[in-house]
Specification:
Layout lengths: L4 H6 L7 H16 L5 H5 L2 H12 L5 H18 L15
Length: 95
């Protein structure tokens, strides 16, 4: 079986502690199942909600570090997408 979308998006992310990396994955799974919902609604119980708030207040966690993985995954998707070939012949411009 292939990677989940969370594993693909976080593969290039290193928060300096494997527990933080795992927590990020769990949080993305929960938020992905309930897009647009508040943190308490997405995490369903107080212990997971509190863990999310602790995660965000951790000094090792930053927006840049979280987005590193997403940017790396986006670059891989872009490279895997076939590029359009240049057209031969005249290109007409309608004005």
């Amino acid at each position: 079986m292939g990677q989940s979308w969370v594993e693909a998006e976080t593969a290039g992310c290193d928060l300096g502690d494997e527990r933080l990396n795992r927590r990020l994955g769990a949080m993305l799974e929960a938020l992905g199942e309930r897009p647009g919902k508040s943190l308490p609604t997405a995490f369903q119980d107080w212990s997971n909600t509190k863990a999310a708030y602790r995660f965000f207040s951790n000094g090792n966690v930053s927006e840049d570090k979280i987005l590193e993985g997403h940017f790396a995954a986006s670059a891989l998707r872009i490279r895997a997408t076939p590029r359009p070939r240049p057209r031969s012949g005249p290109v007409w411009c309608w004005t």
